[in-house]
């Protein structure tokens, strides 16, 4: 049975100002992309699958920095038809294609990021460090499933840092937090950390540096993300162990130099 809501399928108009902001800053926040009814329809299933599939069971105090930052569960769409409707949203995918300036986008993978109450900070990092992809035409939509005030640890960006090549060899870690905090401050990149209203989402490029503060509220910060890549992107030779792992896990069977047209990487908009 499908309950697909209109605003997962209908077109969202990305205006010239939003496109310009994205190109200049490497991210953009868009209001009213999803309505409260849609989020209420899908959030319980997403949360249920996060609880079911989560493999992190250590107490917060016993985890490393990465483990304290959030519970991370990937490719939920493979475990629920309802989550699949959400992840495969033509509306969300079309926005991604328009922002990237490409004809179409395919799925890299989805990723739930639940920052528990008292969950720690998310260190500065750039996502594309992990991805064996040949161009920078990649983008992530970050979808909070509740109002996300400052005390809950909303995603924050270094505006314009998608053109900053220093630190692109750093995995998310205490080291990336320390080194990038210093480098981004020295380069005077504006730090944009603002709350998210319900239904507001952000899109950020794979090379845009971002982080998040701890969750100081008494409520888990529930976020769903979808990572898109240019539908015609090709696989690059992995340059680190994380990229080699990602190639096996998220682009299974794809060969270097080829378009990753695998069953896990369908075209979501063309």
What does this entry look like structurally?
29% of the residues lie in helices and 21% in strands. By secondary structure, the protein is α+β, with helices and mostly antiparallel strands. It has one domain (13-251): Jelly Rolls. Strands 1, 2, 3, 5, 8, 10 and 11 form a 7-stranded antiparallel sheet that branches. GO terms for molecular function: dioxygenase activity.
What would the keywords be for this entry?
270 residues, alpha+beta, seven-stranded antiparallel sheet, four-stranded antiparallel sheet, globular, oxidoreductase, dioxygenase activity, dioxygenase, Phytanoyl-CoA dioxygenase family protein
Described by the principal axes of the CA atoms, the overall outline is globular
Distance between the termini: 26 Å
Fraction of helical residues: 25-40%
Main beta sheet, described? 7 strands, antiparallel
Please, what is the oligomeric state?
single chain
CATH architectural designation: Sandwich
CATH superfamily: q2cbj1_9rhob like domain
Low-confidence stretches: none
Query: How confident is the prediction overall: mean pLDDT?
Result: 93
Total of domains = 1
| Strand content bin | 15-25%
Report the top-level CATH class.
Mainly Beta
Secondary structural class: alpha+beta
Radius of gyration equals 17 Å
Keywords: Dioxygenase, Oxidoreductase
Protein name: Phytanoyl-CoA dioxygenase family protein
Organism: Nonomuraea marmarensis
GO molecular function: dioxygenase activity
């Amino acid at each position: 049975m499908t309950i697909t809501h209109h605003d997962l399928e209908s077109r969202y108009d990305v205006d010239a100002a939003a496109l310009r902001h994205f190109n200049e800053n490497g991210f953009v926040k868009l209001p009213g992309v999803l309505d409260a009814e849609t989020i209420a329809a899908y959030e319980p299933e997403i949360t249920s699958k996060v609880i079911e599939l989560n493999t992190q069971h250590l107490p917060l105090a016993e985890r490393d920095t990465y483990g304290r930052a959030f519970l991370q569960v990937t490719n939920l769409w493979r475990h629920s038809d309802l989550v699949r409707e959400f992840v495969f949203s033509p509306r969300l995918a079309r926005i991604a294609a328009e922002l990237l300036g490409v004809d179409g986008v395919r799925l890299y993978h989805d990723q739930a990021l639940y920052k528990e109450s008292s969950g720690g900070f998310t260190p500065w990092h750039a996502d594309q460090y992990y991805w064996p992809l040949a161009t920078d035409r990649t983008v992530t939509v970050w979808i909070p499933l509740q109002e996300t005030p400052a005390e809950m640890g909303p995603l924050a960006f270094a505006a314009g840092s998608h053109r900053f090549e220093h630190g692109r060899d750093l995995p998310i870690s205490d080291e990336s937090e320390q080194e990038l905090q210093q480098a981004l401050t020295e380069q005077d990149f504006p730090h944009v950390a603002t709350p998210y209203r319900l239904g507001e989402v952000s899109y950020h490029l794979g090379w845009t540096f971002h982080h998040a503060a701890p969750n100081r509220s008494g409520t888990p910060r529930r976020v769903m993300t979808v990572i898109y890549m240019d539908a015609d992107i090709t696989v690059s030779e992995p340059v680190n162990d994380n990229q080699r792992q990602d190639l096996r896990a998220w682009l299974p069977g794809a060969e270097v130099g080829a378009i990753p047209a695998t069953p896990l990487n369908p075209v979501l908009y063309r």
